[in-house]
Amino acid sequence: MSAVASLRRVGLPRLVVHLSVLVICIIWLIPTLGILVTSFRDAGQIAASGWWTAFTGAAETSAARLGDPSTAKQNGATYVITGSVFEGGKGGAVRAFGTRVAAPTEFAVGKAADLGDGETLTINEDGSYTYSKNAPFEGRGKRVYLSVATPPSFTTENYRTVLTSQGIGQSFVNSLTVAVPATIIPILIAAFAAYALSWMEFPGRALIIALVVGLIVVPLQMSLIPLLKMYNEIGNFFGVPSRSYAGIWLAHSAFGMPLAIYLLRNYIAGLPREIIESARVDGASDFEIFVKIILPLSFPALASFSIFQFLWTWNDLLVAMVFLGTGKDQLVLTGALNALLGSMGGKWEILTASAFITIVVPIIVFFALQRYLVRGLLAGSVKGG
Amino acid sequence: MKASFWIGTALAALVAGGAVAQELKFAPGQDSKFNWKSYEDFKAAHADLKGQNLTLFGPWRGEDEVLFNSVLAYFNAATGINGRYSSSENYEQQIVIDTQAGSPPNIAIIPQPGLLADLAAKGFLTPLGQENSDWVKTNYGSGEDWLRYGTYKGKDGKQGYFGFPFKADFKSMVWYVPENFEEAGYKVPKTMEDLIKLSDQIVKDGGVPWCIGLGSGGATGWPATDWVEDMMLRTQKPEVYDKWVSNEVKFNDPAVVGAIEEFGKFAKNPKYVSGGVAAVASTDFRDSPKGLFGIPPKCYLHHQASFVPSFFPPGTKLGTDADFFYLPTYASKPELGTPVLGAGTMFAITKDSPAAKAFIEFLKTPIAHEVWMAQSSFLTPFKGANPNAYANEVLKKQGQALTTATTFRFDASDLMPGKIGAGAFWTGMVDYVGGKDAKTVATDIQKAWDGLK
User: Which of A76, B147, B342, B435 is deepest in the core (most CB within 10 A)?
Assistant: First the structure.
């Protein structure tokens, strides 16, 4: 009864909306979940099975090598090699074993298997084995195949590898040094420009707006060479290094500016004309209007753009590589993590763990600024006025 | 936020200040497999460069970067030069940006002679001179060929010697698991005919002979270019191969189409490839070798260059758990000899300085090669380096194959213009495996090439 009643209260269309949102959220979260689970598995597990199998302890078939013939002990006429098939802290319970890849689970554990040629092999559930022969062993250590039941296992080794790798702390600091000013500078400039373009009358205003909008579509890659050339010339002229933090702040500011001006102008132009005009009537200058009225009112837009710009500068690799350099002491976090993957890439365990490490700062920034986004736009100002 | 920025800057300044001298991996004078005399001689000859700076920029990252830095440490220790190596994921683009903008490193390390030829033609490289070219010619296995791959037209239109080869890759290899072969009673094939027979035998025994993976993100298709190049060398004369690279022999020439079809014999036979033909293009080249180690094995054979052991399961011992054989030649074409397909990295001077010249001199000492040989993933065609310095038998075998090859040819896709060798050729191969026929694909690639002219 209560289910029907609450359904009536919510209404069917709303229920459908909620359900769809829920489904979409889950679909969007699945890849992230996969990356998270993968980042806690070791390289061997990642190669062997998918992340969704990580929670069920499965029977895995694996290979192991018995001790080298040189480790054999002579016992009368028989030669015996003993040891454990589990090396280096790995564990599990052996269910069955075999000596041919075609039949990897031929023999039962705990019982001596006759391999012919006077050889017998016993492997116990705990992995210990006894391999004996009525003649000396030859060649290399014998390869055996095991069916091992392993409990689900997770490791924090990947995170340790990434976090303790050389230069990662330095690159974290470098990233912050790049991203924070590269977020603040363009916002300051763009806010002034946006105010001027929306509330100050001067000839050619529409043309400048069109130009700014047009610049949004220019790919920044086009300007890398000319810009760096300019930096080099300026650097040579003044005898300073051309690759510096000041350089990359300017580059990021310039690249972010068109979109910043466009977004902020749209927002600021939409503020109620009455407020600004009454301020003008009361004798406020443009600067006073900007500082006392426009800035507080447009905080949500500033906050949302700073999230954009911060994420972009934080995740950026290309601009940092070009304008800051690739040396060990100049690498930003993205560059340092990328270098960890090696020349050929493909190290999923490192990739996934680094993904979660880089994500931490943007998430903090997002949640810190998030509350400004949801705050009502004009609620305070109208009452106060 | 502001506070964290100031703290950050302060920290950055602190860390940057404390440069640490790198330790030498092998103590000089101790192990007799190293040519320590060459180290001491080099040290004595370059004592006057102390305190100079040298920047190197190249393709190696991660473990490879650590390995190269271990070699660089010897150079720094011997000369007192402060040599620093750096890399970037997009090093090909980065070197173009840096040279054009006028802030290049002293030395650029580039595995694509095609790219170096571009840079040389624009006048960004400093010629290495007659002395170095003569040295490579006499001291490298197939020296003539190596010399050719470092010789380009300069800005003045004259041929000059620009690229010094150091570190080679060996590509004509088929990897297998010796124990899987022993258990099934298979023998390492000595001829291409035997290799095809072996593949048929594996199919008959209910197995799948080959694992082929062409996937590589934006570079998907490149492993197939190695196949086609190897097949080209096994069906055509080396001169035809050279003309193919320079497009004197068109891409849709029957010789090239034939080589593509040779590759198709393996990759487009659904019984031959693990997962079926559809899986060839979609499997990542880093994942495909893992099929060799499946239980039961997903495949028995895998064609890939000398770098591939880094993608074998952790703990795999080369020589026991996995081994390779030379991709055999047709017994019916004995006149082609034993061609080897390879690649290598070229060192070029992008900003001349005495320290940069000294580094090229350093690459001519046996010790520069041996330090890397004794670690991993390094092959050298330098005949003066001690083969016993190789870290394991598998590397030694590859190194010998490289120095004794009758014909050495550089990976064609690295020599062709970038739009072909790193573009149309790759996508063409994906189309070919996807179902188009060799003639159509080759004609498409040729059209792309014509479009460049």
Answer: B342
Are A20 and A99 members of one domain? no
**Residues of chain A neighbouring B86 (CB-CB closer than 8 A):** 325-328
Reported ipTM: the value is: 0.77
Measure CB to CB from residue B286 to each of A176, A229, A344 and give the nearest one. A344
Query: What are A124-145's pLDDT values in tens digits?
Result: 888 888 888 888 887 778 888 8
Number of domains in chain A: 3
DSSP line for B427-448: HHHHHHHHT--HHHHHHHHHHH
Across the range A91-108, mean pLDDT stands at: 82
Longest CA–CA separation in chain A, Å? 112
Provide the percentage of residues in chain A whose pLDDT is more than 70: 94
**Contact (CB, 8 A) for B293 and A63:** yes
Q: Quick: pLDDT tens for B86-110.
A: 988 888 888 999 999 988 999 999 9
Is B263 found in the same domain as B220?
A: yes
Angle (CA) B108-B114-B117 rounded to 5° is 70
CA distance B313 to B290: 7
Report if residue A195 sits inside a domain: yes
- What pTM value is reported for the model? 0.83
Label the pairing between strands A73-75 and B53-58. unpaired
Give the per-residue pLDDT at A1: 53
In this structure, of A42-51, A172-181, B411-420, the range with the lowest mean pLDDT score is A42-51
Domain total in chain B: 2
What region, left, alpha or beta, does residue A11 occupy, with left being phi > 0 and alpha being psi -120 to 50 degrees? Answer: left
Q: Looking at the structure, do residues A107 and A179 belong to the same domain, yes or no?
A: no
Judge whether B118 lies within some domain: yes
Q: What 3-state class would DSSP assign to A316? A: coil
CA distance A181 to chain B (A): 8
Whether residue A73 is contained in a domain is answered as yes
pLDDT at A68: 82
Chain B: residue nearest A228 by CA? B101
Phi and psi based region of residue B88 (left: phi greater than 0; alpha: psi -120 to 50; beta: remaining)? beta
A140 and A284 share a domain? no
Whether A252 is covered by a domain: the verdict is yes
Number of H helices and E strands in chain B, helices first, is 20, 11
| Segments forming the whole domain that contains residue B192 | 182-340+420-452
Residue A196 has pLDDT above 80, yes or no: yes
Which member of B55, B94, B297 has the closest CB to residue A101?
B297
pLDDT digits (tens, 9 = 90+) for B308-324: 888 888 788 888 889 99
Looking at the structure, do residues A91 and A125 belong to the same domain, yes or no?
Answer: yes
